[in-house]
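User: My collaborator sent over this chain with a note saying "see what the structure looks like." That's all I know about it. Can you take a look?
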Amino acid sequence: MIRGKLWFRCAAMHDPVTPMVVQPALVGWQAKRRQVDLTIERAFNGEELVKRMKGWVTVDPMKVTDIVKKYGRLKVIDDRELVIEFDKEEDANKLNKELADTFGGEVDVELIKK
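Assistant: Without extra context I'll predict from the sequence alone. Here is the result:
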């Protein structure tokens, strides 16, 4: 298995950025007839994390995830870091080419060396 880091361009500063989980989501409920004092903490999966980048990066994150799914799997590892898992390095190269063709350098993948 090969892993890569997905880099977007920040809409404000145009620096390469990648989303990461700083703190898991805290979900609770509001009941109509009584108070519910229950919350659960849940981390985002890879696609949810990328989707939250809308407006903060220069491309549509959902279009990026559609392309990524053709070649690999978006995952959050260690409950914090977004990566793409590939079966072959060739898939990472193909993904980088399609991202470059589609977004003109606004998104790219950097392979993670072990």
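A starting point for your reply to your collaborator: The mean pLDDT is 94.
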